[in-house]
Write a structure and sequence with these properties.
Elements (H helix, E strand, L loop, with lengths): L9 H15 L8 H15 L4 H8 L4 H12 L10 H20 L4 E5 L6 H13 L8 E7 L2 H9 L1 E3 L8 H7 E4 L2 E4 L1 H4 L2 E5 L12 E6 L8 H14 E9 L13 E5 L2 E4 L5
Parallel strand pairs: 1-2, 1-7, 2-6, 7-8
Antiparallel strand pairs: 3-5, 4-5, 8-10, 9-10
Helix pairs in contact: 1-4, 2-4, 5-6
Amino acid sequence: MQQIVPRLSTDQFARLARIVYEDSGIFLAESKHGLLTARINSRLRALGLGDYAGYCEFLDGPGGAAERRRLLVAITTNVTAFFREAHHFALLAETILPPLIARAKSGGRVRLWSSACSSGEEAYSIAMIVLERFPEAARYDFRILATDIDPEMIARAKQGEYDGPALRGLSENRRTKFFTEIGGRFHTRAVLKKLLCFGELNLHGDWPFSRRFDVIFCRNVVIYFDIPTRQRLWKRFAELLYPEGYLMIGHSERIDGPAAARFRSVGTTAYQVVPATT
């Protein structure tokens, strides 16, 4: 195998960055040149390619569609933790859930969405909060959808298996109640999984939803988008949430653009849809 050239050319970077943007909405500025180079080197080795020109050509060939998905996986950053940004879970437990529980008990439908769930910690954290407030939730029409662009992360999330350090921030009560330890690994219990449905989904693509959500978590995602893509996503979330539904975003993110008028702040990086006026 030929030695991999040490650096993408400017044209090659622009070509790959365009593909990433078209497929995911993720914007790679020129400052990400080194990052992209490092992330795709493993793909060149896996494909037996000796240079970046060959990789660009491969993306346009018969195996290009599948490789484009692998390219997105390679450049996606998966940083997560149980109960990360704890203020969102406090708001969920104390303010958001009580009326949703009452609705479910009266026969209504409740849906929450972890829209970039990575390896599942966010979605399982939501489920823990729900079950602490509503232990019989699985008996009602109360479900949590968890999606991610990365199929490998979805597979890990479905498995629900974590090492000890991943659970470091959990109380002993939550460890005992929601996890089973097997050989030094911690497995999420069935009571959590009954509430969850995991699936692969690209936020930049089509959404297969026919009904709305009560709560959407989309945290530390739009920091990778350019302004038009970010503002389009806010609009889509506003349209997908029920009136007075909630949106949780990342600590460094803010809702901007035309959709900002559709939301009001109800806490740190937490927003509620403003009811439409007639």
